Amino acid sequence: VHQSKMDFFCKLGYGKQDICKVLENLGQEALEDDVLKELIRMGSKPRALENPAQPSQLKLVARGSCSATAGLKWLGENESDSSDSLRPIVIDGSNVAMSHGNKEVFSCWGIQLAVDWFRERGHTYIKVFVPLWRKEPPRQDSPIADQHILEELEKQSVLVYTPSRKVKGKRVVCYDDRYIVKVAYEKDGVIVSNDHYRDLQNENPEWKWFIEQRLLMYSFVSNRFMPPDDPLGRRGPTLSNFLSKKPVLPEKKWQPCPYGKKCTYGNKCKFYHPERQHQAQLSVADELRAKTKVPLALGKEEEEERCQCPP
């Protein structure tokens, strides 16, 4: 009985000397609750409480799993995914291809250049919309270059064909621009096109705001896809902020005053004056008033001292 109680309280973390003292006082037949109360009254503490800084060697792991950290890494919780902070991209394939082909040839290579540019930035959701009749062999009135690129992008689940059919020899084409704007609006993404979609802006007021704020225009410079650094103008966001869900606000930089030390605005000047860092930035009028008040105050003090002196 003595050995079993010793083993039990040793597993709890109590020292053997304290356990022996308590058992001698209470007797070998004392209940475990009474022994525990006496140990607490004596001020004996388990080793785990005395050294809380030491980490526990044993860790409970669920069956069928190697470790908790491995599971987190497998789920990708610890690793920050940059694609989560980037907006989805919806590309107007016809507009990009015709722009790359100088509005004469449907150049599929231009679509590939645009897709590669966004892939290099880390965007994972990229969709290109092209009418289905572009699958047909090229004709003189509608030439197509590098048509095999469309098949490759379709296999990669990047390119989507908008439906079209022939009725009595005439081609019936669905409006692909509506697909582009609708998908980009639902995904809260960015539309890549040089088209302004004015008809769709008049059709839906919500789409009007979205097209105005999320339309990314571009240019091709010697087979190089180049969107502008300021998609919404000089006072708008940068390209990186425009394409990210959580834009990073730039630090406020003070513009130096063009007049320098000759500035007469004082503290009312909106520009930065490096020479006034440790000075009170007062206006010229306030500085003159302060200078004129100081000698007047000194003169009054001298007159008071003279009056107090005996004749």
TrEMBL record:
GO molecular function: hydrolase activity; mRNA binding; RNA endonuclease activity; zinc ion binding
One Gene Ontology CC term in the entry: nucleus
Leader sequence residues: none
Zinc finger (C3H1-type): 251-276
Superkingdom of source: Eukaryota
Coiled-coil regions listed in the entry: none
One Pfam family in the UniProt entry: UBA_6
UniProt entry keywords in alphabetical sequence: Endonuclease, Hydrolase, Magnesium, Metal-binding, Nuclease, Zinc, Zinc-finger
UniProt xrefs under CDD domains: PIN_Zc3h12-like
Domain named C3H1-type: residues: 251-276
Cofactor list: Mg(2+)
Family, per entry: Belongs to the ZC3H12 family.
Protein name, per record: ZC12D ribonuclease
Annotated source species: Panurus biarmicus
Protein's gene: Zc3h12d
